[in-house]
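does this look right to u?? 2-acetamido-2-deoxy-beta-D-glucopyranose version
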Amino acid sequence: MDRLQGWIGLIISLMVYLTDPGFGYAIIEGPQNLTVVVGSVARFNCTASDGWKILIWLFNGNPKLSVLSSGGTIETDYRYTQKGYNQSDNRFTSELMIHNVQLKDSGQIRCSLQNNDDNAYAFLSVQINGFLNIKDTNFIVKKNQTIEIVCEAFGWSPAPRISWMKNNHLLDHSMYVSNYSQISNGLYNEESILTLTPLTTSTVTCLATIDALSKPQSATITVTVYEPSPIGCANEDWRIRTIILAVVLSVVLFLLLILIIILIICCCKRRKESNYHNELRKISGRKEKDRDLETVSHSGKENYGYSAEQMTRDHTSFPVKQDFYNSEQDLNVNSPSEVSNNGLQTGEFPSRTTVYPVNPHKIRNVTLI
Ligand SMILES: *[C@@H]1O[C@H](CO)[C@@H](O)[C@H](O)[C@H]1NC(C)=O
Ligand SMILES: *[C@@H]1O[C@H](CO)[C@@H](O)[C@H](O)[C@H]1NC(C)=O
Ligand SMILES: *[C@@H]1O[C@H](CO)[C@@H](O)[C@H](O)[C@H]1NC(C)=O
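got this back:
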């Protein structure tokens, strides 16, 4: 049956060939199936025998580029170009180039000489190699400990075939499980989980393969294996102790810093205050001197505070060294208790410190006593 059909086919082909208006020329070799990665250049060859007039390249039935035997080319898509080769026996080869191929360029590529010889076609398949990665986890394991290593592939078309290698030797399929899912417009994500129980430190490689890639895309990690020491627990304790020590030390340092800052602030404040008191003392001293030199000419309305305690201690130098004196302070000197708290040195003999709002003439009297 098959043989009969074959003969019939041959006879029909022969009849077509003989009745062909373009008798004498044909496509000697048509384009070949091609799979490429997105963004690359797709190349197809079509070789015609001597006598051809026009060679047309079509994508999914649409003419994209025509080559005339006279030498010119007619391009209808800027991404489609061709290069002509004049071969022996007056054969002609047109090499079609499709630049920057995209997923949508996947389809049928046909070469036609505008006769009835229409069998010169092939398929272009555009694929996408996406991102490949081994999930970052702890790859430092105890000897003979079982771990899972996860390899992730994002944005591939089609979903890649994933395989694993340990120290450059392919691992058995039973050691890993792979699952893929379609995300959008023909793109796939895939995840593969390898279960491994390493006895020595090893390099582990995840490989992703698609036809368009001449060699698989890969991701490699190193699994470091350590011998659990007999005092493994002590080791753990030591680590915890170190961490605690570090935390305590940093807290102590922090508190110390705060203490230093507080001390500095207090110091500055006290210095400012003592400056202020010194200033007051100078002013009061000067005024006292002036007052001593001048003949007393006060209205009598003014009150002056003095320290009885100070007086008993420094009565030889009084009133020049009087501790507190300022007419501006009149308002503060209204009540004895207030003055003793605000203006005077009360630290040493607080019980004996008394301040009275007095008439300057009276001070003089007291001094004389
Ligand atoms: C070319 O690709 C098509 C579609 O993918 C397929 O059916 C055909 O068998 C392929 N031809 C060859 C020679 O590989
Ligand atoms: C097409 O043919 C030319 C000339 O023979 C050759 O150099 C080129 O590599 C071929 N291209 C393909 C895609 O086969
Ligand atoms: C690894 O552990 C298994 C049990 O978990 C034990 O049977 C085996 O002997 C161990 N192998 C080595 C090399 O320690």
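The chain has four domains: 2-127, 131-226, 233-265, 308-369. idk if thats expected tbh
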